[in-house]
């Protein structure tokens, strides 16, 4: 037999525990801003969207680079052309994704009468700015994680996704409140 | 063109995942009363979504590897290997749920919010284990369908579980918080 529940628990627990510590920290940021979120639930709806898109696009970028590094068409350097192209494409695809989803969220929220205090253009601008800022950092970390783990002989496929999704959760929430503060709601 | 291909292949998938996340977010949006009545509940939201995502995608990718290794297939799915995987995932869900509950309680005390520790921990455990059972069953059904069509499970289980995982987890958290608020 290959699998045993004891092994699965023993291998899974350490990394999960570290992840959970960071995620509870993200949760505490939400608790600190709970009043704002309860007054403007449209941002409550947006949080899983911001975080999951950041994690998804970052992970896909990492997976593409990992395949490229394994096969050899991506070079082991931050100046690699292929790497730059992938990085910029992630930002572009992220920009389009956040733009479309922000509009969808706004219309869904308008059915629940949740948009009295905020205009469409203002909401979309906040989500897109948050998203692009998030992707800028997450894509950079994704590239660095892929490069460093590959250089050290670890498989980037195992490393990038957990690092990038956890980071997205914390930074997505942080940047959202930062941008809301800058716009001044 | 290279860039055009990338947009064409990945944009629909990201939009689809995003729509799933909107459903999960809307569940959070209708929980505003519960969030008010149960201080500290909001702290466990990112952690429980991450717990579910990590455990289910690992479960899915282990089943994918098991398929490639030939230890499970469409005629021999419900065997000891699969049972050990299910047991491992559920025990892991249970243990990590306890850690989330305790950690959310202790860190809330540090910032001057005083949740009911029993309620908070019970909510996480119920939500963590029930969503674990539902997603485990969903994974097995997905894997079964994927096998029958002869596709590679590695390409399907990841995105499918990531999308459904968020929704199922938030619904379970909503149900569990409602249940605990009424019963305890």
Characterization of the model:
- The complex is a heterodimer of chains A (185) and B (184).
- Chain A is mainly α and 185 residues long.
- Chain A contains 6 helices and no strands.
- Chain A has a domain at 51-67 and 77-185.
- Chain A has helices at residues 5-32, 34-39, 41-71, 81-111, 120-151, 156-183.
- In chain A, helix 3 runs antiparallel to helix 4 and helix 5 (120-151) runs antiparallel to helix 6.
- With 184 residues, chain B is mainly α.
- Chain B has one domain (10-183): Orthogonal Bundle (Tetracycline Repressor, domain 2).
- In chain B, helix 3 packs antiparallel against helix 4 (80-110), helix 3 runs antiparallel to helix 6 (153-183) and helix 4 (80-110) runs antiparallel to helix 5 (117-149).
- The interface between A and B is large, with 63 and 64 residues.
Q: What's the alpha carbon Rg of chain A, rounded to whole Å?
A: 19 Å
Strand content of chain A: under 5%
Question: Which bin fits the share of residues in helices of chain B?
Answer: over 70%
Helix content of chain A: over 70%
CATH fold call of chain B: Tetracycline Repressor, domain 2
Write the element-wise H/E pattern of chain B from the N-terminal end onward. Answer: HHHHHH
Biggest chain pair interface = A-B, 63 and 64 residues
Under CATH at level 1, the class of chain B stands as Mainly Alpha
Rg result of chain B: 18 Å
CATH architecture of chain B: Orthogonal Bundle
End-to-end gap of chain B: 60 Å
Structural class, judged by helices and strands of chain B? Answer: mainly alpha
Q: What is the fourth-level CATH superfamily of chain B? A: SLC41 divalent cation transporters, integral membrane domain
Spans of chain B of 5+ residues with little confidence (pLDDT < 50)? Answer: none
């Amino acid at each position: 037999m290959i699998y045993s529940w004891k092994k699965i628990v023993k291998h899974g627990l350490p990394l999960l525990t570290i992840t959970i510590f960071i995620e509870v920290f993200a949760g505490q940021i939400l608790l600190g801003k709970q009043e704002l979120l309860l007054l403007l639930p449209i941002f409550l709806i947006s949080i899983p969207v911001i975080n999951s898109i950041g994690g998804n696009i970052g992970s896909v970028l990492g997976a593409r680079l990992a395949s490229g590094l394994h096969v050899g068409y991506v070079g082991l350097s931050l100046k690699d052309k292929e790497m730059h192209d992938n990085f910029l494409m992630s930002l572009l695809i992220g920009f389009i994704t956040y733009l479309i989803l922000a509009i969808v969220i706004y219309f869904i929220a308008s059915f629940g009468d949740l948009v009295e205090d905020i205009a469409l253009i203002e909401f979309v601008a906040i989500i897109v700015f948050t998203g692009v800022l998030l992707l800028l950092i997450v894509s950079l970390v994704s590239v660095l994680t892929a490069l460093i783990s590959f250089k050290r002989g670890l498989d980037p496929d195992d490393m990038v996704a957990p690092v990038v999704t956890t980071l997205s959760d914390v930074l997505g929430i942080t940047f959202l409140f930062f941008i809301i503060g800058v716009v001044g709601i | 063109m290279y860039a055009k291909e990338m947009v064409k292949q990945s944009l629909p998938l990201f939009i689809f995942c995003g729509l799933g996340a909107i459903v999960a977010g809307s569940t959070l949006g209708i929980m505003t009363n519960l969030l008010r009545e149960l201080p500290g509940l909001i702290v466990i939201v990112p952690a429980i979504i991450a717990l579910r995502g990590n455990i289910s995608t690992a479960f899915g990718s282990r089943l994918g590897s098991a398929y490639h290794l030939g230890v499970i297939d469409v005629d021999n799915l419900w065997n000891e290997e699969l049972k050990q995987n299910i047991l491992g995932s559920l025990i892991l869900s249970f243990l990590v749920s306890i850690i989330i509950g305790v950690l959310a309680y202790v860190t809330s005390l540090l910032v001057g919010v005083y949740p009911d520790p029993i309620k908070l921990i019970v909510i996480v455990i119920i939500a963590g284990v029930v969503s674990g059972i539902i997603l485990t069953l969903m994974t097995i059904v997905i894997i079964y369908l994927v096998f029958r069509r002869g596709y590679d499970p590695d390409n399907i289980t990841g995105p499918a579980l990531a999308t459904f995982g968020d929704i199922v987890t938030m619904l379970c958290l909503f149900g569990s918080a409602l249940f605990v608020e009424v019963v305890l």
